[in-house]
Structure prediction request, 730 residues.
Amino acid sequence: MGVVHGDLMTLNIGPQHPSTHGVLRLRVKTDGEIISEVEPVIGYLHRCFEKHCENVTYEQVIPYTDRCDYIAAMNNNFGYAVAVEELMDLHVPDRVEHIRVIVSELNRLASHLLALGTFGLDVGAFTPFLYMFRDRERILDLFEVLCGARLLYNYIWVGGLSHDFPKGFEEKIIDFLDYFEPQLDEYNGILTYNKIFIERTADVGVLPAEVAISYGVTGPNLRGSGVKWDLRKDDTYSIYEQFDFNIPVGTGTVGTVGDCWDRYYVRMLEMTESIKIIRQAVKALPSGDVHQALPKKIRPPKGSVYKRTESPRGDLGYYIESDGSPVPYRLKMRSPAFTALSVMGEIASGWMMSDVLAILGSLDIVLGEIDR
Amino acid sequence: MTIDQLINWIPFGADWPATTFFIAVLVCALIIFIFIAAYALTAIYGEVKISSFMQDKVGPMGQGVGFHTGKFGLLQPVADALKLLLKEDIIPALADKKLFIMAPFVVFIGAFISFAALPFNQHTIVADLNIGIFYILAVGSLSVIGIILAGWGSNNKWSLYGGMRSAAQIVSYEIPAGLSIVTVIMLTGTLSMQGIIEFQTGTIWGIFPNWIIFNNPFSFIAFFLFFISGVAECNRTPFDIPEAESELVAGAFTEYSGLRYAFFFLSEYAEMFVVSAVATTAFLGGWLSPVSGYFEGPVWGLFWFMGKSLFLVFVMLWFRWTFPRLRVDQLMSVCWKVFLPFTLVNIFGVAIWSLIVG
Prediction:
């Protein structure tokens, strides 16, 4: 009997595929079900965000930041506003800081719900996805009440906010949290501790801490590998140091530290922490005028700033170079999803077809932010 | 009504036996086809409504005036069917045309001719074959050929993946399914569907129905092994890896549209019913009433048979909306490392049991 030689088959997963989370193309080399090489091909959603920013004023950049990570637009607004304020040495009123924290944590909840739901969908669980979307919808309804938009808010402005909280909005938030907290147990029941789900995700796509750090992976993906790194605590911004919350890390409860299940579960635990932060912030919400510190014309002094904040996907950094004019000379965004995707080739090779999509889902990428 | 009675009933039967036989077969086929279509529409409606109930949404609803989808969305399956019928029939330019066209029919035939041996009640069976249950298991595996043809003929990598996965899965799960049925055959001593049901008449200690599932511990396990293997053979979640929509787009059916796709869809639902009906016949007493001596007769028989089968179909839907999907290697290891040893032990256990008790 001679040895059978087979060529590897090249397969394009995407850009039109049900589970690539946007227009991502994975060029994979397969040997039957085994994937021997994964190469993400990006750029299908490139909209010249950074170049656009060089031609619009600082205020006009904010709607563009919405469209980068459209799943967590509040956090993107927040990061940009904080960066420009640091450049201008501008301090915002306490009420503004509190509201910013509340809305960005609410948006973190919405973003994690989407991440977990679509991850469930990637491994074939349909119902949890709809449960999570049902609850995400309530958050979007809250945002609609707040600023009229459901996805792209343009809410957090440099030096303030576009609107104050409407009357009775705090109660609405607390009502939502009271409803939402028990739902987490339901998710855990139907998905997290499901035997098949654990079989599919535990020990799959293990991302060791040193690999994660060397690739610059941040956010829940890094914490899933057991590294306790969260900018809200480690390089604190806004008023996060006032709040009491924990940073959950992956512990390898059902498998190895840094597997898909850990990345999933860290997000689940982070939702509990976000709820804690929102409750504290609503309780401590001071009164005041949110438009008080809003500058008439944003003309930062000559200089540059690099400010990073913790978006639901990790370290979201804005590098802004100012030449003293009302438009940024150069703006560069450090995208957390981009680094998360770059690790894909490293950890997804050698797994099976189904695992590759599970790993992709567990990294929680948003193509709007990767391609910018 | 068996096909033999139908032949005798036709007045000129004795003069032209071949023609009579052909007519009788056509009549039976037509009745079965109408039954499958009606059942599939019901099942599709059930699936959307049950999934809506489980997923906290409303599903199809009829609102307002005009031709919407009727009260409670009752016309939704009709609208779906109509849409599939009216869609453009696309055959990819590079597809193997003959295989591509043939595949849906091969799949459908596999599911369709299984109905010939299903006993709907005491009298309603097309042909009470003396190898009935064996026949159903045998023709049930025809569909795998169709799926491979579809996967290969589409000339699409996703389809090929789906076809190969499906082949491996269906062929593997035939074995535990068949071996679980062997335990039934060992107890009843017959392969005839009606014979198996007649074995289950009466009661255990005057209370429980004398169904094979309650006959002994081994047949109790065998029912679950058979049913799960059956779910796997139908490619339903959690074993729907051949058409895993988040991995393989639509597996072997990726390139199909319109009526051809409808045939795949129809045969999937038909197969679900066949598996449920076989499980009902072999383990749950077929058309027998659960309360011995009451609610008997042809109409009740039909009611019990349909009720039990549709309940098992409902359980399959329930699975689908609850579980994630297994990976292909996990699926195989469950089959060969768990189910197969269990079924073999079961056969051994039943043999010992009948030696001691029977």
Q: What stands out?
A: The first strand of chain A starts at residue 9 and ends at 13. The domain at 57-336 of chain A is CATH 1.10.645.10 (Cytochrome-c3 Hydrogenase; chain B).
